[in-house]
Design a protein that fits this description.
Length: 233
């Protein structure tokens, strides 16, 4: 599967990591299907769509929207080779015994249901030719800190989905893996933690390169891995 022919779906494409991942795949000549909640946000971040770039607005907690992403990718580029599930959210809502139903539901819808809906939408289209799926969990999924119960639980669920999907799909030509970043160096995180040293965090471009590798034929022997990406933290 040559990268120049690869069609890559990137969810959460308008975020800091999404832009870095889209740029890394674009540098390889891939066809890009860039997904966010609002097309205007994608246009603001990337300019117009083009011959190798398609914008799709979707709420990935809705199965119909996820199905629409897959259908748009196939209609425009004829195939789906890679799905990068970057869409996600972080929220702290106090200790576990004070966690609201709203926070719990929001994190599981955004971080977990989005992966499930994209799997349902895209895997059937990928089975004939094979491909790759890369999910973004979090280092906190390995060991939760205080006040991070709901977030860590949702990202741990992404890890378990990654493992299950890998076991189900590895013999069918699709490798599935995930990355576990610590704090990503973004303007938002710098503003929220002004006393921290961003040099110890994970640069979006560095994480993007790992995601592109996991999506490539060079990673065909890696299945069901949850790879910590911790920078110096």
């Amino acid at each position: 599967m040559e990268s120049v022919h690869r069609t890559v779906i990137v969810t959460g494409a308008s975020g800091n990591l999404g832009r870095a991942v889209a740029g890394a795949f674009a540098a390889e000549g891939a066809n890009l299907v860039l997904v966010a909640r609002h097309e205007a946000t994608l246009a603001e971040q990337f300019g117009g769509d083009g011959e190798r770039r398609l914008f799709v607005a979707a709420d990935l907690g809705r199965q119909d929207d996820a199905n629409g992403v897959a259908a748009a990718a196939r209609a425009r580029f004829g195939r789906i080779d890679t799905v990068c599930n970057l869409a996600g959210a972080f929220r702290i809502d106090g200790p576990v015994h004070e966690t609201s139903d709203a926070t719990w539901q929001f994190l599981f819808d955004t971080n977990v249901r989005s992966v499930l809906c994209m799997a349902r939408a895209c895997v059937p289209a990928m089975l004939e030719a094979g491909g790759s799926i890369v999910n973004v969990a979090a280092y906190a999924a390995l060991r939760a800190g205080a006040n991070m119960g709901a977030y860590a639980a949702s990202k741990a669920a992404v890890m378990r989905l990654t493992e299950a999907m890998s076991a189900e799909l590895r013999e069918r030509g699709i490798n599935v893996n995930c990355v576990l970043p610590t704090t990503i160096d973004t303007p938002q995180n710098r503003q929220a933690m002004p006393g921290a040293d961003p040099a110890r965090w994970v640069a979006p471009g560095d994480l993007a390169r790992i995601i592109v590798f996991l999506a490539s034929p060079a990673a065909r022997a890696i299945h069901g891995a949850s790879i910590p990406v911790s920078g110096l933290s």
